[in-house]
Amino acid sequence: MHTYASIAQLLVALAVGFVWVFRFDNIVKEFHQYGLSDLTRTMVGNAKIILATLLVAGIWYPALVLVPALLMGLLMVAAQYFHFRANNPWSKRLPSLFLLVLCVFIAAVSLNLIA
């Protein structure tokens, strides 16, 4: 199961990196739509990139995995809240929901809840 968790860690990290680097213009539009400041966007982006990096490092150092997975999951819960509040369609909600599910899976494997 740890192999699947490692794959999930890579998927989360790659998805976050892709969105915050190559689709940054979309992020700017979304944060503006949600009424959030540039400072908030910068802090969230930095946090996500740091957490994604820790998830990748956690492949070799498993002790690093639990906290970043839980914090990334909380950021995805926040993303779901803002998508809901803005009444976005499901097509915009699904990516963060999928990443939330992956983060819960990674945390569960890290806690040995899933063998």
Automatic annotation (TrEMBL):
The UniProt entry, under Pfam families, shows: DoxX_2
Q: Which UniProt keywords apply?
A: Membrane, Transmembrane, Transmembrane helix
* Name recorded for this polypeptide: DoxX family protein
Q: What is its main location?
A: membrane
Q: How does it sit in the membrane?
A: Multi-pass membrane protein
Q: Which domain of life is it from?
A: Bacteria
InterPro entries on file: DoxX
Location comes to: Membrane
Report the GO terms under cellular component: membrane
Source organism lineage?
Bacteria, Pseudomonadati, Bacteroidota, Cytophagia, Cytophagales
Q: Where are the transmembrane segments?
A: 6-28, 49-82, 94-114
Keyword Transmembrane helix in the entry? The reply is yes
